Amino acid sequence: MIIIGITGTLGAGKGTIVEYLVNEKGFAHFSVREYLSDVIRNQGMEVNRDNMVVTANDLRSKNGPAFIIEELYRKAAETRQNCIIESIRTPGEIEKLRKKKNFFLLAVDADIEIRYDRIRMRGSETDHVSFETFRQNEVREMYSDDPNKQNLSECIRQADFTIHNNGSVEQLKQKTEEILKKIL
Predict the structure, then answer these.
(1) Which residue range forms the structural domain that includes residue 142?
(2) Distance CA 130, CA 37 (A)
(3) Which residues are CB-neighbours of 125 under 8 A, at least 6 positions away?
(4) What is the pLDDT of residue 121?
(5) Is residue 144 part of a domain?
(6) pTM as predicted
(7) How confident is the model at residue 125, as a pLDDT?
(8) What is the number of structural domains in the chain?
(9) What is the pLDDT of residue 128?
(10) Which of 5, 50, 52, 179 has the fewest CB atoms inside 10 Å of its own CB, making it the most exposed?
(11) Other beta carbons within 10 Å of 135
(12) Is residue 181 part of a domain?
């Protein structure tokens, strides 16, 4: 069993990689976004990016920097199959996962204009934002000294593998396949 954690910027292609690994390679999928969406809905709040950040930061501050990831890792380990955990966002999460056997961190990035176009086409409940809001969200999530808050730049820096995804879906799948061969 291997567990791949995936991190990266908004709209970079994390979801496309997850789809590929689940549909083509039989990986089980565990999503921080889905986990947080469930918590937010259970609290009677609207699912949006601001509530996701606040909820995640609150859970981490109350339960430890890696709380959400530990919950997802526990579920992943129970499957005893290859898994992908989507949306690693804090160095504390990586630190906990590095202590587990067969863990690899994959980062994905792309140019900001390309990523914004992708999220507009995707149109999920957190994607209906202006370019300026998109940019502000990214700045807020990119750096933090607080171990309970998102620090994407540090997560990307710590990745075992990084994909720059300005190309097609097919090119992204090929790059993912090359990394899988190295891992397996």
Answers:
(1) 3-175
(2) 22
(3) 47, 48
(4) 87
(5) yes
(6) 0.89
(7) 64
(8) 1
(9) 78
(10) 50
(11) 14
(12) no
C-alpha distances (whole Å) from 144 to each of 15, 72, 85, 119, 124 are: 24, 23, 22, 24, 26
Q: Is the pLDDT of residue 122 over 90?
A: no
Q: What is the CATH number of the domain that holds 108?
A: 3.40.50.300
Average pLDDT estimate for 7-16: 94
| SS3 (DSSP) at 146 | coil
φ/ψ of residue 8, rounded to 5: 150, 180
Assess if residue 56 is contained within a domain.
Answer: yes
> CB 143: neighbour CB atoms within 10 A?
12
Asked if the structure places residue 107 within a domain, the reply is: yes
Per-residue confidence (pLDDT) for residue 57, from 0 to 100: 85
70 pLDDT more than 80 = yes
Reported as half-sphere exposure (CB side, CA atoms, 13 A), residue 4 has a value of 28
Instruction: Let me know if 69 is exposed, middle or buried by CB neighbors in 10 A (0-12, 13-18, 19+).
Output: buried
Only one residue has tokens 């565990």, namely 30
Which phi and psi angles does 107 have, rounded to 5°?
-110, 145
Q: Which of 102, 95, 108, 107 is nearest to 183 (CA)?
A: 102
CB 148 within 8 A of CB 166: no
